[in-house]
Write a structure and sequence with these properties.
By secondary structure, the chain is of the alpha+beta class. The protein contains 14 helices and eleven strands.
């Protein structure tokens, strides 16, 4: 019960927020009563079944001197240990695969920095005196300058869709070279960006330049594209200075720069081919960005929120400030489902491994007690203690190896169910299977050693006298 009281809060803390009724979960009287009743029923079953088996008449066993009955009981005992070992190994392999996926995700370069970046959205409406695209652009550019003047702020930028927090829209674009071909449209994602967005996020400039203040005016028509977008539009060629058009709006844009790819939806996804549009469209009413996201580079990312909120209230008293995050927090949140699943499977696998070890220990202890006279005779005839220990350990090892073989076969068939959650590792990863199997064998040998040591300490004289 103490393990439950300590472990459940830790498990809930690692659970994804989307789990239904998460706040109501916990250890209470109802849970303890149900657990106690379940344990009592299991105990009665475990005691009743052997009693029924033992009370059944077995004339053949009497004829054979008990060999048939003893052999059947041994197979039942060994079968239970094999089942426990196989279950423990399946859970161990599953949790190890998820843990390796977690490690691989940690090594992924998303194309941007997540440390020391604070982000928020500000929902500015026309009631703030803003009426068209240029007026909204001026408002956000001025607020960026004011935030950039705060102590500890290194840079500030704007983007319509923050990576790891929002999705991006998509549309079809055609290059100037293939403008007359209706089948030449390439599906690209797009977002809006301004200020020092790319340097704030640590997104690499690979060619040309970034959008400047002069690009956010009516009719400028300059854009920045990601490396993936440039490769789709002009494979193997330079994109800077090239023109493209949006099939939906018909507006033309000139590429002034190419930046690195970013992972928009998570570390286990593919880079989005992105077109970064300026804050102002071809006409004053082409688009109006009412609530873009701000990204702020500062070592005070965890506590700068109140100061920025005060500036936002001065600039737009009625505008709500929401979706306040740090990029480091968003990165951690994106891994919560995988972390939770790995933790849950890890706890289950450890419990199953412990139960398997305890079961093996109990079976071998019982066998040693049943064979005390036999072991005494062996030692009286000159058998060494090390040989007796080896005999008992090998008996346990055979059972464990059988369970490991069954567990490997079951795991090979069931771990494919985790394929959608794995990253950078195959469901049938040989290293994981081998490592977890070896670990289970070592646990089994350790569980076998204590009964083996007891067997080797049998006094031949006392065992023969007691018989």
């Amino acid at each position: 019960m103490s393990i439950a009281w300590a472990g459940v809060p830790a498990l809930l803390a690692a659970a994804p927020p989307a789990v239904p009724n998460l706040g109501r979960a916990g250890v209470d009287g109802t849970v303890l009563l149900f657990t106690a009743a379940t344990a009592a029923v299991c105990a009665m079953l475990c005691g009743t079944l052997p009693a029924i088996w033992s009370s059944a008449p077995d004339l053949r066993g009497l004829r054979d001197g008990g060999r048939h009955s003893t052999g059947r009981a041994r197979w039942r005992r060994d079968g239970l240990v094999v089942l426990q070992t196989a279950l423990g190994l399946v859970l161990l392999i599953g949790s190890a695969l998820l843990f390796r996926s977690f490690q691989e995700l940690r090594r992924v370069d998303p194309g941007y920095d997540v440390e020391d970046v604070y982000t928020f959205q500000l929902g500015v409406e026309e009631t703030e005196g803003l009426t068209d695209g240029p007026s909204f652009a001026r408002f956000h550019m001025e607020l960026m300058d004011r935030i950039g003047a705060l102590p500890g702020v290194e840079s500030v930028g704007i983007v319509e869709n923050v990576p790891l927090n929002e999705g991006v829209a998509a549309g079809r674009y055609r290059t100037e070279e293939r403008a007359d071909d209706p089948e030449a449209g390439v599906l690209l994602s797009y977002t809006f960006a301004a200020g020092d967005y790319w340097s704030t996020m640590g997104i690499e400039l690979t060619e040309g330049r970034l959008l400047a203040a002069d690009d956010h005016v009516v009719g400028a028509g300059n854009v920045v594209v990601s490396r993936a977008a440039a490769e789709r539009l002009w494979p193997g060629e330079s994109a800077v200075g090239r023109r493209l058009t949006s099939e939906s709006s018909g507006a033309w844009y000139t590429v002034v720069g190419v930046v690195g790819d970013v992972l928009q939806y998570g570390f286990d996804g593919e880079p989005e081919p992105l077109v970064y549009l300026p804050l102002v469209g071809p006409t004053p009413t082409s688009w109006i960005l009412t609530s873009p996201a701000y990204v702020v580079k500062t070592t005070r990312a965890d506590d700068i929120g109140p100061e920025i909120r005060a500036l936002a209230r001065e600039a737009a008293p009625t505008a709500p400030m929401y979706r306040t995050f740090t990029m480091a927090g968003l990165a951690e949140d994106s891994m919560v489902p995988l972390t939770f699943m790995a933790l849950a499977l890890g706890i289950a696998s450890i419990l199953a491994m412990v139960l398997g070890a305890v079961g093996l220990y109990g079976v071998l202890s019982y066998v040693v007690a049943q064979r005390t006279r036999e072991i005494g005779v062996r030692m009286a005839l000159g058998a060494e203690a090390s040989g007796v220990r080896r005999m008992v350990v090998m008996q346990g090892a055979r059972v464990v190896l059988t369970g490991v073989g069954v567990g490997i076969a079951v795991a090979a068939a069931t771990t494919r169910a985790l394929e959608g959650m794995l990253f950078g590792v195959e469901p049938a990863d040989a290293l994981t299977f081998a490592t977890m199997s070896a670990g289970m064998v070592l646990v089994g040998i350790f569980a076998s050693y204590l009964p083996a040591r007891r067997a080797s300490s049998v006094d031949p004289v006392e065992s023969l006298r007691g018989s």
